[in-house]
What we know:
Chain A has eight helices and nine strands. Chain A is of the alpha/beta class. In chain A, a hairpin with a 2-residue loop joins strand 1 and strand 2. The chains are: A alpha/beta, B mainly alpha.
Amino acid sequence: MIEFEGVGHHYGERVVLSDVDxxxxxxxxxxxxxxxxxxxTLARMINGxxxxxxGRVLVDGLDPSRDGRAVRRRxxxxxxxxxxxxxxxxxxxxxxxxxxxxxxxRKERAERAAEVLAEYGLGxxxxxxAHQLSGGQKQLLALCAMLVLDPxxxxxxxxxxxxxLRNKRRFVDLLAGLTQQVVLVTHDLDLLGxxxxxxxxxxxxxxxxxxxxxxxxxxxxxxx
Amino acid sequence: MMIGGWYEPGSSPLHRTxxxxxxxxxxxxxxxxxxLRSPVWLGGTCAVVLLGYGVARVxxxxxxxxxxxxxxxxVFVFALQWWLLGAEQALVVCLRIVAALAAANLFxxxxxxxxxxxxxxRALRPLARFGVRPDRIGLLIGLTxxxxxxxxxxxxxxxxxxxxxxxxxxxTAFAVPFLVRTLRHADELGEALAARxxxxx
Lengths: 224, 201
């Protein structure tokens, strides 16, 4: 379970989060809010990419600012722009890169990578240059590179922002079928219907925390 | 050397030669080219490299890409050197450039990056006891090659944007967004590496 206890954060003078208290046992949780509302910062705290200035975060009882390595082994993270997360020249090598610490041989890593790629619709792309994949395929590759490690939690920071409608749908359907707990930061409100819980942030505070329909209704009144 | 782009699958003898061996030959060739001073020998070296393109059956399209990059460079350097040092010296310098760049490009076309990374990691493994981390160096090479692809993509987009605003001749209209996006890419890449456990030891 993910817990935030009195979490606050600021970049210089600008306060981005204050007094966030949340316990997230649900399997499908979304963070929604305007640009600069603090939702991406909150998501980054789950795997210790950003450390809270006040308060603390716990993932299954572990504090990411102290046990960063252990937490990152449980928490996968998918970013908005797949170009920045793909670190190896071909799709297969990039997925295999995630496995470099697992003690598998080079051949085993390549085989496992090919399996995972095939499972998520990128079969046959293992030797394909990663930067020549389409936007949707690149985001799938980024997802594969995380799922190959079988994390308990998957945090996705606006993963569908750069995708067209079809690929957005495909990506979210894929997320829906995962066994992992998913924390999704998004602006694509119509993709949240099947979520267990939607948390709306505004000016660094939680302003709504409910099932999708009432939470999103609140968010819409906020922006109009 | 990313003149003509990336690996092109093939089954020629050059494709099948192990990456480590090819890499050493490439380094050796570069050294020889810079020691040679005779235009005849340098011309011969160029011919051998070009023969390599035939052996590897590199597509005409790729050869054309190489020529489009090399010809303006060579013309510019030749003119400059001729003016500064004279015709013979200019010829020697240009033949060196052609031999070295064409050979490096041939290497990229016929060698998979993964194989280069693996060869380097294997060659450096004995140095691990002196604190060298072969996996880190392998990652560095992979990231460098990936960065070349990403940054050329960014450069193309920035150039398009400048053109759309009618500022294709402005240096600032290119340099400022290019630098900003490069730095942002560096930040995002750092975050992504951290999220994937790189740096966790």
